[in-house]
């Protein structure tokens, strides 16, 4: 056998092995995704976290309200934090209608202000007095689109405050007690609302998507810090979902109820989720650019979405 004949099969074998490796890797990834989004079964969350209270920020509309309703239906007491007393009271009544056996505690706070110890001291002592918080849903968020050449810097600053400070503040304030709870064999959970906007990077969404990258990174690092402490951290990256600000429906726009049910079926088993399978499909299409022609055809409907979270 000549020298070249010997080299040829070896090269082919190496290339085939490499191809096989990447193909298997992709197949395993795809299998895991299909399994997560189509076949994941919800754990018994009340049992897993041994009851306690679910604290939800921004609970008076949209996704936050649905998280409050669904945790209440599963038997958790609810602590809700939002800025409007009347809306808090109405939501409390709706939650109690869904499950009259639980307790609902309201905390009124407006996050549209810079963080200072003084401004947040009242909220901090309310949180420190809470008993048995087992689940924290860092949900509150705001969205004001704007291109760089014309954006309103005051609005952009408000959005940064509302989207970033509460997640940090609530986690920092409640985590020590949650770790204590988890140490006494009562597991806890922290859900952090980010967005598909981290990946879509659409025009006008620069500041919003940057705050959502902040939410995601904070969640990922928190997970690394507490994953040996009996605390489940889940980063949630929804796609377009009907809420206070989004009032259109489309093939990839879903209702909060469907979003939250899917997320709860991933809680305790995964570290990140887009929630509903439609949002997984949505982000995959955008990522691989297969969405381009659809995007062009439906520009009008999608433009409407650009004002939404
Ligand atoms: N909807 C979507 O398509 C979508 C997609 C991806 C990610 N998300 C994320 O999901 C989360 C919830 O969004 P959403 O669509 O459900 O929003 P939403 O319907 O506007 O609800 C936001 C909630 O936060 C409260 N809130 C807003 N600003 C506040 C402030 N300054 N102080 C205190 N409370 C305040 C609102 O209270 P009021 O009722 O008084 O306004 C409401 O309870 C956000 O983090 C958002 O980024 C949403």
TrEMBL record:
Pfam families: adh_short. Transmembrane segments: none annotated. One of its GO terms (cellular component) is endoplasmic reticulum. It comes from the Eukaryota. One of its GO terms (biological process) is fatty acid elongation. Keywords: Coiled coil, NADP, Oxidoreductase. GO terms for molecular function: oxidoreductase activity. CDD domains: 17beta-HSD1_like_SDR_c (cd05356). Residues 81-108 form a coiled coil. The keyword Coiled coil applies. PANTHER family: HYDROXYSTEROID DEHYDROGENASE-LIKE PROTEIN 1 (PTHR43086:SF2), VERY-LONG-CHAIN 3-OXOOACYL-COA REDUCTASE (PTHR43086). This is Uncharacterized protein.
């Amino acid at each position: 056998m000549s020298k070249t004949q010997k080299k040829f099969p070896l090269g082919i074998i190496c290339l085939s092995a490499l191809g096989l490796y990447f193909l298997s890797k992709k197949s395993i990834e795809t299998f895991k995704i299909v399994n997560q989004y189509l076949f994941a079964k919800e754990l018994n969350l009340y049992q897993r976290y041994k009851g306690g209270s679910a604290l939800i920020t921004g609970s008076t509309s949209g996704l936050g309200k649905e998280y409050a309703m669904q945790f209440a239906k599963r038997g958790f007491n609810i602590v809700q934090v939002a800025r409007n007393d009347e809306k808090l009271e109405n939501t409390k009544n709706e939650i109690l209608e869904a499950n009259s056996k639980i307790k609902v505690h309201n905390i009124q706070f407006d996050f549209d202000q810079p963080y200072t110890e003084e401004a947040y001291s009242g909220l901090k002592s309310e949180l420190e007095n809470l008993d048995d918080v087992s689940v924290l849903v860092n949900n509150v968020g705001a969205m004001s689109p704007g291109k760089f050449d014309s954006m309103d810097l005051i609005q952009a600053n408000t959005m940064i405050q509302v989207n970033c400070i509460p997640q940090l503040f609530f986690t920092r304030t409640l985590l020590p007690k949650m770790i204590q709870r988890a140490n006494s064999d009562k597991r806890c959970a922290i859900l952090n609302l980010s967005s598909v906007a981290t990946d879509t990077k659409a025009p006008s969404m620069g500041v919003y998507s940057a705050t959502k990258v902040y939410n995601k990174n904070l969640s990922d690092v928190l997970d690394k810090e507490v994953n040996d402490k009996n605390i489940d951290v889940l980063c949630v990256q929804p796609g377009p979902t009907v809420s206070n600000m989004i009032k259109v429906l489309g093939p990839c726009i879903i209702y909060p109820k469907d979003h939250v049910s899917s997320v709860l079926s991933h809680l305790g088993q995964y570290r990140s989720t887009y929630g509903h399978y439609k949002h997984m499909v949505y982000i995959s299409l955008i990522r691989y650019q297969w969405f381009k022609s659809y995007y062009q055809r439906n520009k009008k409907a999608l433009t409407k979405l650009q004002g939404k979270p």
